[in-house]
Amino acid sequence: MSEKERVWPRKPRQALREEPQTFLIQAFPKVGKSCIAAALTTQFAAGKSAVVTLGDEGSYDNHSVNEINVTIGGFEKLLDDLIAEKPYDFVIFDHLSEFDSWSETLGTVRYCNSTMGKGHNLKKDTLPKLGMNVAPHNYWLPKDANFESVHSLPNGFGYRWSKDEGIRLFKKMKKVAKYVIFIGHIKLDRFTKDDKGTVVNSAYLDVTGNLGKYICKNTDVLATMKRKKGEGFLVFKTASSDLDAGTRYGYLDNTEIKISEKQEDGTILTFWENIYNKYKK
């Protein structure tokens, strides 16, 4: 078609999505994140959802939950399988602090396999010749006392390696289901100084530097979770703290939505329909 034959659009199209495809929930420990995640797989989207727990087996042992536990070695293969087969409508990744740690480890391995990184973090008796592939058992692991993270490189040079690995995997995580939920912890810094030099408390998503900023920027909805007595709330209000918050969806904008309530018998009732109100319709 030539430029003269081009047909220019005249009518606005309808929105392609009415509910968030990616959703980040951040909170301090023991606020109830695991409870609402587990309940989504048993109450709201039973049979059509799963929690992917990263590395830490046992964190959901006190919940009824559809759970997939994965270690760093099998993580990318799991992502590829989920993308290919799409077995779930909802996938929840818990938690981003562990993902951050994995990004550092994988960034270190990627650097070690680069030309400039040959010899970094290698056991001394296995130093390879330039261009030679190194077997995984020749590297020090994070649990080893001699482990050298790529973050130890001078002038902060190594952080881009972990950030790039994290971004590469995060892009895959976003593709595993129609709805993807990320659970993250909050890091509290009690020594931040404001513009006047006064020491104040600051709270951030517990993910290192630019990787954390990238995740927040590339997620549809950011909420903090808080608990009032036996009730849990997701807060989408902005400018209330240093934490990133907010949404691209008007019905959630600047709101505080009840997500859970503890019943007299100790069970937890959840209200995911307040977030995904069109899902079952």
Which features would summarize this protein structure in a list?
Rossmann fold, globular, 5 helices, alpha/beta, 281 residues
Number of domains: 1
Number of DSSP strands? Answer: 11
Shape: globular
| CATH topological fold name | Rossmann fold
Helix content: 10-25%
Protein model, in words:
This protein is α/β, with parallel strands linked by helices and 281 residues long. The protein has a single domain (21-274), classed as 3-Layer(aba) Sandwich (Rossmann fold), CATH 3.40.50.300. The chain has helices spanning 33-44, 75-85, 96-112, 159-173, 209-217; strands at 22-27, 49-54, 67-70, 90-94, 179-193, 199-205, 221-228, 231-235, 246-247, 256-262, 268-270. Strands 1, 2, 3, 4, 5, 6, 7, 8, 9, 10 and 11 form an eleven-stranded mixed sheet that branches. The longest helix has 17 residues, at 96-112. The protein is globular, with a radius of gyration of 22 Å. The two termini are 41 Å apart. The model is unreliable at 127-132 (pLDDT under 50).
